[in-house]
Each structure stands twice: as C-alpha cells, then as structure tokens.
Design goal:
The chain is an alpha+beta fold. Helices cover 49% and strands 7% of the residues. It has 17 helices and nine strands. Strands 1-2-7-4 form a four-stranded mixed sheet, with helices on both faces. Strands 3-9-8 form a three-stranded antiparallel sheet. Helix 10 packs across helix 12 and helix 14 packs across helix 17.
C-alpha cells in the first residue's frame, strides 16, 4: 500500500461531503465531465481509481506534477516504435536532445509567418460551410473547418502532399493508442499497427525524396528537420519519422477538437459570442479562454520516479498518475467563483494548463493559439446568424475530448 498522509480537513460544504468515487469510463461522463471534476476537487482531489491509477485534479497539484522530474515513458497498446521514439514519450536526456533539435526549426517567427496561409485556409473552409449550408440547410463545422484546417497547415509546413482524407483515417486510428485500454482487442491492435505502418511508409518515402532533392530556396519544416544539427547531433531517419507522426497526431486531433469545442462553447453562450463579434481585440485572450473552458486534452500522464506529494497525499514511486488538465482549468482557487463560466475577457485565462507544463510543455502551443484566434474570429464575424442545428454528440474517449460533429445553420 502507498504511504499516505491524512489530507487537510475540508471546510464548509465540503466538510460534510463524502469523498467522490469517480469512474472516467462510465457512460455519460464524456458528455460532460466537468461536474465530476468539481466533485473530485471538493472531496477527493487526489483520487486513486480502483484500476490502480491516480487522478490529480487541483490546479496547484497539477502544476507541481507537470513540473516534477517524473517519467512520461510507458508501454502503449501496441508497443509502438513511433511512440517509443517520439519526443512526447521520451524522458531526459533523450527528450532534451530531441526538443532542442526541433526547437531550432519550430520557432515563433516561423509560426507567426503562417498567419497568411491559415487565413487563406480558413476563408476557403468558410466558403465550404456556406456552400454546404445553402445546399443542405446546415453544415458540419468539423467536416468543413475543424478537421481539414490543422492537417492542411501541417502538410504545408512539412512540404508534404495534402491528402488529408487519407491522413485523417490513419490519425484517427492511431489516436486510440493514446487512450487507456485495459484489454485491447486483437482487432484494435491490428488496426493500429496497420495505420502506423502505412503512415511510416509514406513519411519515409517523403524523407528519402527530400534527401535526394536539390536544396529549396525556402526549405519546408521537414527539410529543415533533416538538416537540423546541434553540435554534430542530427536526427536519424527513424527519429525523423517519429517526430513527423507526432506532429500529425498531436497537431491534428488536439487542434481539431479545440476548434470544435470552442465553437460549441460560444454557440451555447450567445452573450460571449456577441462580445467576440464586437471586440476583435479579444481574439487572443478568447483563444486562451476557450482552451481553458473546454480543453481538447483532458489528462496528461506521468509515472512517478520517486514518492510525490499532492494535496497531502504521498503517491508511491512507480505510480501511474493522470494530471487532470481539464479539472485544473476550472479550479475555483485560481479562476474564482466564475471558473465554470465562459468569460472571453477573463484576465488570467492564460493560467490554464491545456498545453501541459514543465519540460513537456507543448511545442505547438503558439500554432494552436494562432489557428484558433484566426479561425474562430473569422467564423463568428462572417456568419452573424450562426447557430447550432442539432444536439452535440461527443466522442467516447477519455484522454481527448471533442464532438463527433458540429451541425450549424448560418
């Protein structure tokens, strides 16, 4: 058994509340997990699930866990070689080395330079929305905007063919390898292995072609990664492939869900939607508030390398701990009594932890903010009668959160 200290006694209403037993896999939780997180923060903020993992839900404890020198390495559903080599699943010093090489080309200047491309792609997507609505009476913002936009941006950055329908089907299968599965079915394992093999083969062929091609005047991101060098250190072909696949998985699904979640939140809060239309100066802060209010990544996993104290409880070494990013983003201790509300002018919206923290803070945070700021701002100002056309059905996933579709009238 873990060596646990007695937590500080709660006060007020929480003093008489029984510790809440939470099952993130229960039916209906994915539809709206936030009331469950609120109960955990109030009564059981460092929660040991019967399956053997822990969930930390308060902002201060989540930040401490993310900043601590614990491990992110763990076996995945398929023992995936891509996961094993990607920066997201590496501990220092391997993570430090990979991040240093990627940071050389994933610069703030390079990201800001994508604004004209993103604006053009958003406007093309909004044209598709308008055509679909004219033809069918409504349009799906996931199909027309949220899913193609991040994939097209990533393809353009990497200098790869923008076959985003092909890429989406593989990326959606691979996303299941990030979900906790007690006993994965043979069919799931086979589907993940097949999708990974197909994506690896395509990326490998592109890398080989770029190595043979003459140096372009303005090299794309993948060409820069091939050439990236730090004190004689370069990325191997397998490492290059792993980082490209990581860009697809992390950059596509998370941004797609972020855009979709954000639009749903705005359409459910018409007063905030009006505020955003009237205040373009709020676009940047609105992106962070949408990230805070309904983040697309609900948890970040750590494996403790030493005993770790959180909220008066000592977690043992070797424990699997889920940092509750979505719960921390609505912690009343940080965001006040309006923590559960959407407020686009929230002064401290950027204190959210949607991009993680510590050494594994998301490298693509600036790109996600830029895509959200441009896409959401242009969408709501182009269609002044934008409205939900049907109920929202949410994906049945635990780690990531997003709607299956966002049907709207314009």
């Amino acid at each position: 058994m873990a060596d646990r200290r007695i937590p500080a006694q709660p006060t007020g209403a929480a003093a008489t509340a029984r510790p809440y037993a939470f099952d993130p896999f229960a039916p209906g939780v994915s539809d709206d997990p936030y009331p469950h997180f609120a109960k955990l923060r109030a009564t059981n903020p460092v929660y040991e699930h019967p399956a053997g993992f822990w969930i930390v839900t308060r902002h201060a404890d989540v930040v401490d866990l993310l900043r601590a020198a614990h491990s992110v390495e763990d076996d995945n559903v398929t023992k995936s070689r891509i996961h094993a080599l990607s920066m997201m699943d590496q501990d220092p010093p391997d993570h430090t080395r990979l991040r240093r090489l990627l940071t050389k080309v994933f610069t703030e200047r390079a990201i800001n330079g994508l604004a004209p491309l993103i604006t053009r792609l958003v406007d093309e997507a909004l044209d598709r929305v308008e055509r679909a609505a004219a033809e069918h009476g409504q349009a799906d913002l996931v199909t027309e905007l949220a899913y193609p936009l991040p994939l097209l941006v990533i393809c353009d950055m990497l200098g790869m063919e923008a076959d985003y329908h092909w890429l989406r089907t593989r990326a959606e299968v691979l996303a299941h390898s990030l979900e906790p599965v007690a006993e994965p079915t043979p069919e799931l394992i086979e589907a993940i292995v097949t999708a990974e093999t197909e994506l690896v083969d395509r990326v490998a062929a592109v890398i080989e072609a770029k190595r043979r091609a003459p140096a372009p005047a303005e090299p794309d991101l993948l060409t820069q990664l091939i050439r990236a060098e730090d004190g004689g250190d370069v990325l191997s072909d397998e490492e290059l492939i792993a980082q490209v696949v990581l860009l697809y998985l992390a950059g596509y699904a998370t941004t797609m869900n972020l855009l979709a979640n954000g639009v749903v939140a705005l359409l459910r809060h018409p007063e905030q939607l009006r505020l955003l239309r009237e205040r373009p100066d709020l676009d940047g802060n609105a992106a962070d508030e949408l990230l805070r209010y309904d983040t697309s990544v609900q948890y970040s996993r750590r494996i403790t390398l030493a005993p770790h104290e959180a909220g008066g409880t000592v977690l043992p070494a070797g424990a699997t701990v889920l940092a509750g990013l979505a719960s921390a983003n609505r912690d009343e201790e940080v965001f006040g009594p309006t923590a559960a509300e959407l407020r686009l002018d929230r002064p401290n919206a950027r204190k959210h932890v949607s991009f993680g923290g510590g050494p594994h803070h998301c490298l693509g945070a600036a790109l996600a903010r830029l895509e959200t700021r441009i896409a959401v701002g242009r969408l709501v100002r182009r269609f002044d009668r934008l409205a939900l056309a049907d109920d929202i059905v949410w994906q049945r996933l635990m780690i990531t959160r997003g709607p299956v579709a966002v049907p709207v009238t314009v």
